Structure formats: C-alpha cells, structure tokens
Amino acid sequence: MNVTVQPDKLTAKDFASDQEVRWCPGCGDYAILKAMHKSLADMGARPENTVFISGIGCSSRFPYYMATYGFHTIHGRAPAVATGLKLARPELDVWVVTGDGDALSIGGNHLFHALRRNVDLNILLFNNEIYGLTKGQYSPASRVGTKSPSTPMGSVDSPAEACTYALGCGARFIARGIDVQAKELDVLFRRAREHKGASFVEIIQNCIVYNDAVFADFTEKAVAAEMQVHVKHGQPMRYGKDGNKGLRFSPQTFKIEAVVIGQNGVTENDILIHDEKNRVLASLLVALRPPSFPEVLGVIYCDPAATSYEAAVAAQEAQAKAQATAKGGAPDLDKLMRAGNTWSVT
To answer: Per-residue pLDDT for 140 more than 90?
Structure first.
C-alpha cells in the first residue's frame, strides 16, 4: 500500500534562523525580513528547497537570518552565483537579495545579464538610496544634491531608477513595494515566486541612520493615501484618501497625468485601467515619481516569456546528449574537449 506523507505546515518561525539579527534599530530591513518569513510559510515553501543569495551591503546579511540554504557572496556578483546554482539545481527556489549600491554599481552588469537571460530568480533590490554599510556614502540611486561623506557639497549625479533599469534590461516581471507594508509585500513575494523567469522587486527601504526619511514625502502615514497608487491588473489606477484621484493618459502629450475626478471635466471613465502585460504602459509608470506624481506600487509589469533560461539550457543539453547517443555512443566529455580546432606546439 502506497502512503502519501503530507509535509508539516510550517510557520514563520520555521524560516527564521537562530542568528542574532544585526541591523541598526529601526532599519527597514527588519520589516522586510519578518514579511519574508511569514510569506514563505504561507506559500508552502520548504526550507530545504529554498536558497537566499546575497552580495555585499546591509541587505546582504539576509541569508544569515533565514533557516534555509544561503550564500553570502561578493560585491555585485549575487546574480551570477544565483544563475550558476539555478542551472545546476533548477528545481530550487532561488532568491537574490541585493541593495541599490550592490546591484546598480559594481553589480549592474551581472544584474543586466540575469534579467535579459530570464533566469528563474526572485531578485529583491532593497533601495535606501545610500551606502549604509560603509557609513553613508552616496549611491547610484542617491538624488541630486545628496550630501554624504563622499559628496560633502551634494551629489551632482543623475540617479539610477531601479525599475526603469530592470525594464530596459528586458525583465518580464517588475514590481515595487515599501518595507513596512507587509500585506503588500506578501502579494509581491507570492507573485514573484509564481512567475517563471526573472522576477525583479524593488523595495523602498528606510535607512534610519544615514538617509532617514528620504522617502517621507510618500511613505509617512499623513500623506500615504494621497501619494501612493497601488496598481492591480484590470483595475483603475485610483488613489487618494477619498479615492477621487487617479492617473489618466493624455493622447495629446503622450504622457500620464495625475487628475482629480470631478474637476476640469474628469470622470471615472478617464482613469487608466492597469494592464500589467503592457510594456509601454509599464515604461510610463516606472518613470512617475513624487512629488509630481504618486509613487506607483504593486506589480507594474508581468508578461511571462515562453521559457526561462535554465529550461532552455536543459533542453539544449538533453538534445546534445540524444544526438551523441544516436551517433553510436554515450556522450564523452573528454573526447569533446579534445575535438575541433587543436594545435600541437613543437
């Protein structure tokens, strides 16, 4: 008689390691970590099938605090290490945790290739617009005028926009959330894990020591309703305390406008309906930033490709083995390495 043993229902505590969590008191990373513990348990994930891979930075301590497998790798190279693991063990749930300094500076090239290849990774970019671990230098995401030890007179760099960059790299899943919005993060983590291919989630994260309140113009409770629009597929992009504000597209300017229903002839029918499969719409949404527009949160773009990178590689490998076998023998790696163009130096 065959007996199917159902795995025990896990809780958030089952995904929390026994390591002391060492971030600054009040850091937004605590909220993200707690949300991840709960989300994995609710999703039915298994610690033995889950891996967290990080680079260097405050966010990159994440694997220590997960009761899963994990790698704390080198600066900016987490996507490369994660790609190798996914190719070797495609059945694993692989999460990449990185920061704006880690992923958008030295790691920009590696992030680009993971996204364009569409490797089935869940990439979480914690964006606090500063280098926190090395004591507050400005990062690629820091705003013009940011004063820091490396820019005492204020940064003159144009900041990198994480979601815009991901879209330009060819990412097929792009989302944005806020560190303390646990329910919304749970949805984003679930959607990212369900997506087969590279998932990119930017998480707005407050650095209480070196860049405190830099996002206050849209994260503070007093203004959140008026300065955040949570987009959902097939639903109008409305926001505001009374739900009377929204985003509409202007065919005259080919731009998105923030409008108030009932003013200047604006009606509910003018409000844009979110289509997460529309890449052109996504390119417009990721470019909207406060204070001129509300911060766009939620799943901004999701249009899965036919296959992921590791699935295509596995299919190609199987085809090569079949062809070798059909030619009269099992694949021989040593023979392959010695075939083709070779030279003898005498």
So the answer is: yes
User: What DSSP letter does each residue of 164-226 carry, written as one string?
Assistant: HHHHHTT-SEEEEEETT-HHHHHHHHHHHHHSSS-EEEEEE---TTTSTTTTHHHHSHHHHHH
Which residues pair with residue 297 across a beta bridge? 230
Say whether pLDDT at 87 is over 70.
Answer: yes
Does residue 316 lie within any of the structural domains? Answer: no
Say how many C-beta atoms besides its own lie within 10 A of residue 294's C-beta. 25
Q: Is residue 271 included in any domain, yes or no?
A: no
Nearest-CA neighbor of 31 among 230, 207, 223?
207
Q: What is the DSSP pairing of strand 295-302 with strand 173-178? A: antiparallel
For residue 260, is it within any domain? Answer: no
Question: Which of 68, 60, 59, 61 shows the shortest CA–CA distance to 39?
Answer: 68
3-state secondary structure of 137: strand
345 band by pLDDT with thresholds 50, 70 and 90: confident
| pTM score of the predicted model | 0.93
Q: Give the pLDDT score at 323.
A: 85
CATH classification at residue 83: 3.40.50.970
Cβ 58 vs Cβ 125: under 8 Å: no
Greater confidence, 166 or 344? 166
Q: How many domains does the chain have?
A: 1
Q: Which residues contact 197 (CB under 8 A, 6 or more apart)?
A: 118, 119, 120, 172, 173, 304, 305, 308, 309
- In the three-class reduction of DSSP (H, G, I as helix; E, B as strand; rest coil), residue 301 is classed as strand
Q: Domain of 70?
A: 12-219+276-302
Tell me if residue 232 falls in helix, strand or coil: coil
H-state helical runs in 220-277: 221-227
Q: What distance separates the 2 farthest-apart alpha carbons in the chain?
A: 87
Contact assessment for residue 203 and residue 97, using Cβ atoms and an 8 Å cutoff: no
Q: Tell me if 212 is assigned to some domain.
A: yes
Computed over every residue of the chain, the mean pLDDT equals 95
DSSP state of 280: H
